[in-house]
Amino acid sequence: MRLDASGGRTIAHVERETEDVYFAGGCLWGVQAFIATLPGVTFTEAGRANGTSRSVESDYDGYAECVWTRFDPTVVSVEQLMAYVFEIIDPYSVNEQGPDVGEKYRTGVYSDAPAHLEQARAFIGARDDADRIAVEVLPLANYVRSAEEHQDRLARFPESSCHLPQELLTKYRS
Fold this sequence. Notes:
Blueprint: E1 2-3, E2 10-11, E3 19-25, H1 28-35, E4 41-49, E5 64-71, H2 78-85, E6 96-97, E7 100-101, E8 107-111, H3 114-125, E9 136-139, E10 143-145, H4 153-156, H5 166-169
Helix pairs in contact: 2-3
């Protein structure tokens, strides 16, 4: 039990087990804005995954812009999250999403939970176009949080440029 700030009443508070997966789908501003609205998602953070270095010269060599996604597995599965993410990405494109071009804009699913990677591979494998899909599914090698200016960017600055249409960004907002 915890105290409710609205009057001191006690209310039940149940901590649910959550799990983490990382989705790369081009520019992270729109990807984060979209994923944050999905059922079962409890937390998102803009970042970069699976790179090789971090220096001024490298601009995050090898990293993919991604969104750390914490979710409640009793509400949504990795396969369901994949289906949602496939609504906003071009799964056939290599290193390009909308106007964003370069290795950091590749698509991917990363996790340190082998079951998540198996589920992601099963989702892709069950599709008729599985042989054409360019979404990488890899263990999470490393993760770097993006600068504060990139966190929840579209929520703070709705006029910011994004390759995703507004109707997709708000499709699952409740």
